[in-house]
Amino acid sequence: MTNTLYDALIAPHAENDQIFLALDNGTCWTYRQFVQRAAQLAHVLRKAGVNAGDRLVVQGPKTAEAIALYGAALQTGAIYLPLNTAYTQSEVRYFVDDATPTLVVCDPGHLDAMTDICPCQILTLADDDTGSLSIAANDQPATFDAVDRGPDDLAALLYTSGTTGRSKGAMMSHRNLLSNAVSLTDLWQITDQDRLIHALPIFHTHGLFVALNTSLLAGAKVRFMAGFDTDKIVDELPQSTLMMGVPTFYTRLLGYPRLTHALAAKMRLFISGSAPLLAETHTAFEQRTGHRILERYGMTETNMITSNPFDGERIAGTVGFALPDVEVAITVDGEPAGPGQVGMIEVRGDNVFQGYWNMPEKTAKELRDTGFFITGDLGVQTEDGRISIVGRQKDLIISGGYNIYPKEIEDVINDIAGVLESAVFGLPDPDFGETVVAAIVLTDQSLSNDAIANMVEPQLARFKHPRRYIVMDALPRNTMGKVQKNILRTEYGT
Ligand code: MLC
Ligand code: AMP
Fold first, then answer.
1. What is the widest separation between alpha-carbon atoms in the chain?
2. Measuring CA to CA, which residue among 219, 223, 221, 239 is closest to residue 25?
3. Beta-sheet strands, E only, within 318-452
4. CA distances, 466 to each of 35, 165, 409, 420, 462 (Å)
5. CB count, 10 Å around CB of 341?
6. 158 alpha carbon to ligand 2 midpoint, in Å?
7. How far does the centroid of ligand 1 lie from the alpha carbon of residue 454, in Å?
């Protein structure tokens, strides 16, 4: 039997007694314990009827047990589908309806809400490991024969919102995930001597695949934190060698007086991605710590695409070069752009996903027959291949590393009686990079901003909530009738 990801990431650690996860409460899991726990959980999944190709939805706490559950999903051949813990019931309903999972695992506090919307079986995962999944696993055998899965079989389904408002499930194969983990581990020279500060959520590509698949491949130690806490990160820096974060991590660390060269002396690499890192953050961080942050660029559908070099020059404001096994093309109207010419960033390689779940038309629009995926990001490339992202063709806000699609919020606002139309856009924010603002035109002038917020907020995760509503007589439009969000951004951006 072979199982591409299990064989590469998990099986080699069956007798490894080095520390894998160092937890907030001071306890640790060795690699061997992790492998055994994953096997126990795999038995529970199988008893719950989870077979190869079935979807396993997980919306739960960030714990070591949750990582073992990811390992268990790989072993059973299930397609792992993690969900942001901030999603509301109505958001989760869409994912469950679309993915038709065999099993849902959720926090015990969400069990009632989940029962209302899930026709399938539900088990719970608690932050103190007292959920029904954990209890059922305790008396299971500590070995499990991994199910046969090849490189082209699906390992994960990650939902990513779209410009049309409906989220799309990006189908990731074993090959997609493994090829990227191998490239990154090699490029960033991650080894079993590393200790990674892990403060990212584990329901996105960055915290789950970039951080954990590379650590598993290298046998690195992971300081696994339940969330981002500046104090705790500063405490961990002297014992650690590696950190991966979104730009907000770095701006928050810069606001901290204890951050000095001496504190980060043992660190060998700080990596940033998921959102643009301002050149001023890059410079200020180097002045304070002596480290040049390595910025890389990626996407849910493609895993990581480019990276600044580990050994060569890391240039602020650029995202570096295509990874060794990834092709990047910059195109204008589908034709190659010249050096220095702005165009669409397109990507091809083993890293590129298998298409959108149940959405062949959407897949065909974004994934060319040639294998190139159209990212929606605009970039330029120098003659020697260094890439800079200069904008986005897609209407997208990135707040603290979370993608927010304005259309999804506009749809909710426009459904409110008394609202004629709305335009949601991003304004610069010192903490999150961008913040969400909604311009609205009313038909009922008595409708207050608070009343609108009260109707919008239960339907959307907190990070998507507009932080400001601006009532206008009319939205600015061009001669074609298209709303000009650039005018709104300029007018309200100061
Ligand atoms: C939290 N809040 C946010 C927010 N995160 N609002 C907008 N944008 C965000 N990103 C809300 C909280 O609910 C809270 O609401 C308020 O803002 C302040 O919260 P906080 O305590 O300051 O936030 P915190 O919990 O510290 O979280 C901030 C953060 C977190 C930056 C640590 O957002 C985070 O971990 N972001 C990383 C996202 C990520 O992993 N992205 C990778 C996607 S993969 P209230 O009610 O208190 O006002 C990808 C591909 C690639 O993009 O290339 O990697
Ligand atoms: P997601 O769909 O959540 O995976 O987010 C992917 C998007 O994040 C990309 O299409 C880019 O727009 C953005 N992104 C990721 N990394 C970077 C980066 N280093 N600089 C600028 N934008 C980035």
1. 68
2. 223
3. 321-322, 326-332, 335-336, 343-349, 373-381, 387-392, 397-399, 402-404, 419-429, 433-442
4. 43, 16, 8, 17, 9
5. 12
6. 15
7. 21
Phi and psi at residue 124, in whole multiples of 5°?
A: -115, 155
């650590």: which residue's tokens? 215
Ligand 1 pocket, 462 CB below 6 A?
yes
How many angstroms separate the CA atoms of 63 and 222, rounded?
A: 12
Which pair of tokens denotes residue 216?
């598993």
164 pLDDT more than 80? no
**Residue-level length of the chain:** 494
Which of 323, 463, 465 to mutate for ligand 1's pocket (most ligand atoms within 8 Å of CB)?
Answer: 463
- Partners of 392 in beta bridges: 377
pLDDT by residue (tens digit) across 435-471? 999 999 999 999 999 999 999 999 999 999 999 999 9
Cα 100 from Cα 116, distance rounded (Å) = 15
Q: Starting from the edge strand earliest in sequence, which strands make up the sheet with 419-429, in order? A: 419-429, 433-442, 468-472
Q: Ligand 1 within 6 A of 82 CB?
A: no
Residue among 400, 380, 401, 381 at smallest CA distance from 390: 380
- The amino acid occupying position 189 is Q
Residues 266-278 have pLDDT tens digits of 999 999 999 999 9
User: Looking at 47-160, which runs of residues are DSSP E strands?
Assistant: 55-59, 79-82, 103-106, 121-124, 154-160
Nearest CA to ligand 1 atom 17: 463
